[in-house]
Amino acid sequence: MPPSRHLGFGMRLLVAVFTIVFLATAQAQPAVPETKAAAVFAAWLDAFNSADAVKVGAFDRTYRPAPSLAQLSGLRRQSGGFVLVRVVASEASRFTGLLKEVESQRFAQVQMALTGDPEPVLASFALDLVPPPADLAVQRLSEADAVAQLVSHLDEAARRDRFAGAVLVARDGKVLLERAWGLADRARNLPATVETRFRIGSMSKMFTAVAVLQLVEAGKLGLDDTVGRHLAGYPNRAIAETVTIRQLLTHTGGTGDIFGPGFAENRHNLRTHDDYVRLYGERAPDHPPGAGQRYSNYGFILLGALIETASGMSYDDYVRRHLFEPAGMTSTGSLPESEAVPERAVGYISRGNELVPNSDTLPWRGTSAGGGYSTVGDLLRFVEALQAGRLISPALFQAATRRQAGPFGLGFAVVGDGDWQGFGHNGGAPGMSGDLHVFPRLGYVLVALANLDPPASSRPLEFIEPRLPEAR
Fold first, then answer.
1. Where is the signal peptide, in residue numbers (predicted)?
2. How far apart are the first and last CA of the chain?
3. Is the sign of the CA dihedral 165, 206, 416, 405 positive or negative?
């Protein structure tokens, strides 16, 4: 799903962020008015930025915000804190301010109101992502200057251990930047390279979508076929009889997630798509199929099972033979974690002030819903094969990458407007972060992969997109 507009719930990044964002010019923070509400805001900002448990606890006990500062600890790690850009409105019991994240080009508006009690608490609190003000927009640069600024930005981010991964920028088939930063394996002090295979999470949903569309073109599947037409004996009748392949691709089938207690308890035993179906197949839809949209990892598990049934091949064999080999993607796959994969990076989770391996969170192997690995170069080759018509027909490619339901095409995220309308997908889980942004009208392909928590891969693309020139 697209990132939540409400930053208080962690800005879940489930598909690629294409929104053009801007960098605030360096300036001193404005003075905070001498009101009670402004003083509470200043205390909130100080506690949030400090990441100090004592300050955070004291603020939460005194003012009882919802969400609490303690609940925003993940946002604090991701954002690096906030700076106040300007005071929007200030009254005795209300305060509204414009903030900018320290670690990114994102802006947010904070609004808070106090109760009328002698010792007031927060009556309301909101922290929302907002477009950057026009007067704080950065200027578009030449390709060379935009790339140079991105390199400097990532040099500094890597120096502060805020980025480890690889980035690729291409335009009209010409690679403008392909470079890596940081360490792929900290225990062995192995640097990341452009050949490092990073885990890509849900980015592999694009591979699943293309595989399904190939089978549609071959007449083995139909977009409006139901699940039950191909998966005989599927346990839940409502899903079998009403959910279609189109709805699975557009996250409108109500098929739910795979993560939660059931996954945690069975992580090492979930080795095939059939294993997932046995675990989750009895569940009813979590909303009427076709009547809503909710990002569904299990829906893409079902697509993997459908690919296997329709093709007579395992999912991994099918995508290797029909996608990776035709596209020249020699470093992409989803072998089990128990197998040694050359150049596969170790993922690292932020726990407090430490980075620890994410091995205790990983599935047995990648699936049709995500969890494989790739390189920035292979993902460029995937885009080039798609655009050249080597994987699916131009007509199906256009259908897959234009809006079908909400922000989704057929398995691809589709966001933006005008020349900056693009497609792609992201992938995020503890210790892995990946983004692919493709802007066909302008010819840009942008890829970032990282072995750190999300949104590590989003930051580089957010930095360079508003700086890239539109004119050729």
1. 1-28
2. 32
3. negative
Q: Looking at the 3D structure of the chain, how many domains does it have?
A: 2
How far, in Å, CA of 101 to CA of 108, rounded?
8
Are the beta carbons of 334 and 207 closer than 8 angstroms? no
pLDDT tens string 325-367: 999 999 999 999 999 999 999 999 988 778 999 998 999 899 9
141 found inside a domain: no
Indicate the residue among 136, 166, 187 that finishes a domain.
136
421: tokens are 């309308």
Closest CA to 41 of 104, 120, 131: 120
Short-list 410, 380, 373, 408, CA closest to 392: 410
- Are both 360 and 255 inside the same structural domain? yes
36-50 vs 53-63: helix crossing angle, rounded to 10: 150
Residue span of the structural domain in which 317 resides? 198-467
Note whether 374 and 198 are within 8 A (CB): yes
Distances (CA, A) of 448 to 93, 200, 432, 451: 44, 10, 11, 11
Tell me the CATH number at 59: 3.10.450
